[in-house]
Amino acid sequence: MLPTFFKTNYPTLIDEFFGKDFLGDIFQFKGVNTPAVNICENADEFRIEVAAPGLEKNDFTIDIHHNILTISCQKEEKTETKDSKYTRREFNYNCFSRSFTLPSAVETDKISANHKDGILTIVVPKREEAKEKPKRQINIQ
Question: Is the pTM of this model over 0.70?
């Protein structure tokens, strides 16, 4: 085992010949990725935003079971090029699945979703009793 000094200051033989991401280049799978997700909370709801450029609303499936919200996508693209000497076919699969455990203070029956400009937005409303109440003063008697 080499000390840290040697690892950081002298590149390995494999790094020199193949580059630092040698195996990553060999085993790269096109279309297998997890999109970025933003989760925002305000007084009335949670908002989940999924960045999914190039996908349509029909590519998504949103399920809820036992307070677990699952967003999944599966899209298959096929292209074919024909020439007098060859035929070339390419298949591209794009799929992912993300699951989120919802708090018990949400209205699962009122969850809604919208897809616009490559962003899938899911609105998860809070129950009335879970919403933050305004500050009030209690009179002392």
Answer: no
